[in-house]
Amino acid sequence: MNLLPELLRRKLPNLYAQENLGAEAIAYVKYFTPDSNWTWYATEFDGKDTFFGLVDGFEKELGYFSLLELKAARGPLGLPIERDLYWKPKTLRGISPELFRGPGSDDTC
Question: Residue 109, Cα to own-chain centre: how many angstroms?
């Protein structure tokens, strides 16, 4: 599977382009392991190898991840990481609202 076809590559904003959007940053691509519970949501890309976005693995956290590492990684049953072909872009808040609640947010608990 092509994890980052040219059309998606062009849609992804450059690194730091959505930095000031916080919870309203858009995740344009979703990757997942079909044989475990890890998921990566890409909001930005450096045009070569590095993404920024939400990683949902042992914990949910914002951070950087590598296209080359996604291509090389295998889940516990040896299955490769896949791109969600049916993914529609969503805000980070829409994906994981619990990460954006608390002091300074506009959500009420």
Answer: 25
Quickly list DSSP for the chain: --SS-HHHHHHSPBTTTTGGGGGG-EE-EEEE-TTSS-EEEEEEE-SSSEEEEEEESSSEEEEEEEHHHHHH-B-TTSPBPEE-TT---EEHHHH-GGGG-STT-S---
Q: Which residue has the tokens 């993404």?
A: 51
β-sheet bridge partners, residue 90: 27
Distance CA 37, CA 69 (A): 17
pLDDT tens-digit map of 72-102: 999 999 999 999 999 999 999 999 999 888 6
Give the list of residues 6+ apart from residue 101 with CB closer than 8 angstroms, or none.
107, 109
Alpha-carbon span 7 to 93, nearest angstrom: 25
Structure tokens at 90: 């969503």
